[in-house]
């Protein structure tokens, strides 16, 4: 597993269109297609409790199921996600399980960054 780095930046809450908290980030990650062992590099570009925005060189399509791995500070996160949108090399994924513990870790991270201003 590579050493992941992060550079989080909060988005202006008044400009949020989503119901769920989301912040702009730059976090190295990797993913594998569900049922496969080969990993592919990705970069998380935004992070939220409803989903994650990422960039990747490998083409992905809505409905693809992935295992996404990344590090939030000292915590290793691995979550099952589903591609919800694709535009070029940018993708939106949502958590497959709404009770996934990763969502709580993401929420804690967002709150920590928000109150660290």
Automatic annotation (TrEMBL):
Record-linked InterPro entries: PilZ_domain (IPR009875)
Domain PilZ positions: 16-111
Pfam families per the UniProt record, alphabetical: PilZ
Superkingdom of the source species: Bacteria
GO function term, MF aspect, one: cyclic-di-GMP binding
Protein name: PilZ domain-containing protein
Provenance organism: Leptonema illini
């Amino acid at each position: 597993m590579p050493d992941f780095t992060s550079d989080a930046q909060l988005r202006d809450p008044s400009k949020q269109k989503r119901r769920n908290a989301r912040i702009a980030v730059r976090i190295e990650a990797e993913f594998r297609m569900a049922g496969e062992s080969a990993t592919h590099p990705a970069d998380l570009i935004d992070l939220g409790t409803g989903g994650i925005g990422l960039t990747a060189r490998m083409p992905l399509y809505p409905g693809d199921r992935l295992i996404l791995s990344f590090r939030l500070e000292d915590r290793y996160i691995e979550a099952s996600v589903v591609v919800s949108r694709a535009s070029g090399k940018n993708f939106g994924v949502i958590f497959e399980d709404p009770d996934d513990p990763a969502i709580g870790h993401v929420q804690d991270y967002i709150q920590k960054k928000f109150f660290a201003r």
